[in-house]
Amino acid sequence: MVFSFNTTYEDLDSDLYCKVAPKDIDNPEILVINDGLCADIGLDTSELNATILAGQDLTEESIAQAYAGHQYGSFTLLGDGRAMILGEHVHEDNRYDIQLKGSGRTPYSGRGDGNATVSSMLREYLYSYAMQNLNIKTSRSLAVIETEETVERRRTEPGAILVRVMNSHIRYGTFQYVAAQISNELPRFTDYVIDRHYPELNAKDRTYLEFFDAVMQSSIEMVIDWLRIGFIHGVMNTDNMSIDGETFDYGPCAFMNYYDEEAVFSSIDKHGRYAFGNQRPILRWNLERFAESLQPLCAQSALTYDELEGKLDEFEDRFDAQYYTMMRRKLGINSDGEEELVDEFVEWLRKSSADYTNTFLELEMPGTFDDPAFASTEFERLRNKLTAVGLDAELMQEANPRYILRNYLAEEALDEYIETGDLSKFKRLLTVLKDPYTSTDLGSRFQQPPSREFDTEYVTYCNT
């Protein structure tokens, strides 16, 4: 058997999932497969084929999960409408959800067709691959399988299935669903999640309180990492917030080029709710909703809601502490403090709207980029101030990638495949993104931002 499945989620209340089967697919074709991920989770690539990866040769029933979520602030009951978990694959005491996206309708599909376009699945593969190699905790893409069907979204494209791997797909919204629909199951469900993701907490006196604290901490670390590399998730609904701090659901996401805290690239985020600079306050808002979903535990355990609110009250100070630690590393400051200098530098970024990624490379290696912003007297003044307190090259090299996934290069690669069937640009991007902290070609096109006009007009879509 290729996968070592042991699906413990099926031991939970049956209201939490539905048993489903992937749609029948004729002549599936593997477009790309992640050999490194296969090795990490103990899969032999010689045993994998498109039929197995597309869920056509199952050894057990798949499940679609139910969950809820605040979508743009409005609470909704939801579920996997175009995704299903083949099973929980166990390798060396680690457990991984093997999930298919675009594998057909489920009882949660509503008016959706359960399908996915090849460009959206290749796009998620690219972005999750980039995030993994940027050292961000993330879902990972095992493979993209093209199907013979056609799918209509903004344009008509071939259909595709993404094989996604995560520690689990449990989210804030799963807890919201349990609290709203089967609140008597909340202690059992919470115990299950703790055993699966935070087993060390079982030795604590205040296990449920420590659980909330651990989720808040993992979420803060995740968003701090997004800010470090200029990533905009684009749809930070509570149903897209992992209980384990894994970045996932790469729909209307993008990397920020020119520094702009109001940067939004999602076609549906009309009011900038999930803009780059709003990701911190939205995380706090989402954690408040998560705390509310745990409220039924207060009547069934020693936990009190005042204790949860007490943890929430720590959010700002904890986020600040980790934010300034991260920014000091980006700026090469090898000592504590210097918050005012960090703030001064960020204010320069706001005013100059310089390219975020290249700014820190230019600090480390002056003269790398021909950008008037880096020739300004203000930039030189700040660089001299930073030199006086550090500019530690080792710190900077660990914190600042040489390459991010430039959105325009991703679109070029996807368009090339749709128009010509050629994956050359796509595979070249994978090669560059394999080691984004090592520069082999300073000043290469992979380090160049797009025109400001492109950034102004660029839009990403959910593609559901």
From TrEMBL:
GO molecular function, one term: metal ion binding
Listed cofactors: Mg(2+)
Pfam families associated with the record: SelO
Claim: Secreted is one of the keywords in the record: no
Keywords: ATP-binding, Magnesium, Metal-binding, Nucleotide-binding, Nucleotidyltransferase, Transferase
Record family assignment: Belongs to the SELO family.
PANTHER family cross-referenced by the UniProt entry: PROTEIN ADENYLYLTRANSFERASE SELO, MITOCHONDRIAL (PTHR32057:SF14)
Listed name of the protein: UPF0061 family protein
